[in-house]
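Contributing new records

If you add data, match the layout below exactly. Sequence lines come first and carry their own label; structure lines follow with theirs. Keep one chain per record. Anything else will be rejected by the validation script.
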Amino acid sequence: MTNIMKIVFLGNTKYSAIGEEIIHKKFPLSLVVTTTDRPSGRKRELKPTATKQFANSKNIPVLETDNLDKKAVSQIAKIKPDFIIVEDYGLILPESLLEIPRYAPLNIHHSLLPKYRGPSPAPSTILNGEKISGVTIISMTELVDAGDILAQVKYELKAAETTDSLLTALNKLGGELVLKVIEDFINGKENPVEQNHKEATITKRFTKQDGFVDLGNPLDRQTLDRMIRAYYPWPNVWSKVKVKSGKSIIVKFLPEGKIQPEGKKPMTIAQFKNGYPQVYEQISKLFAD
């Protein structure tokens, strides 16, 4: 039975593609749903999502849509899926879509629910200095991230954990964990547990401005370190400085003590000092003991 499951996978990012590949190896996917190609790079050339690239490499049918409207839902319904699996997708699924799968619509969420519901659990975990995170598989409902818990696994954060490394680790764990949940449903051993909604915490959607730091009002080292790791690879911690020409440029502060002036490659603090001595004093205040 396991090799004839019909599974529709919804995801967009390189992190989604991690779980997509793990699931496809065990249960070949019937359809991948992702957003349309987006302009990327300096030339703003259209680039497919990571999940579309993987699907194309494995000849998996792809539905590209930026809106889960009636037409999109109808196309998914034609598959008659046993499961719908959502991983780092970004769009809210309408109730009409949640009702389609034979067994359940499953979400791979990057936190130990009910903590850190919402769009940004990984960076929020790092910002708050948590030592333990994890992955939760839930049966999806209309309320965001509020469905019954089907499985959870914990993950211990490393000292230098970034959002990039955390999402990479959690999506690997999530991909493996959702396989167990699928097997449980097939064997009639699923064990949904209602969340304690009173303990729920909600994350917000971050913007570019969240990463801005005022060089005239330096943050303490711990806060800055957490921000740099939480906001990598986006929106990054950044500020504006005036260089010798009088022009203002954006400077990004990256993990591992790297600095990236606008239009340049990342460099060490020492390299920045040699190249931009006139603004080094401002920057150095952020890293003063």
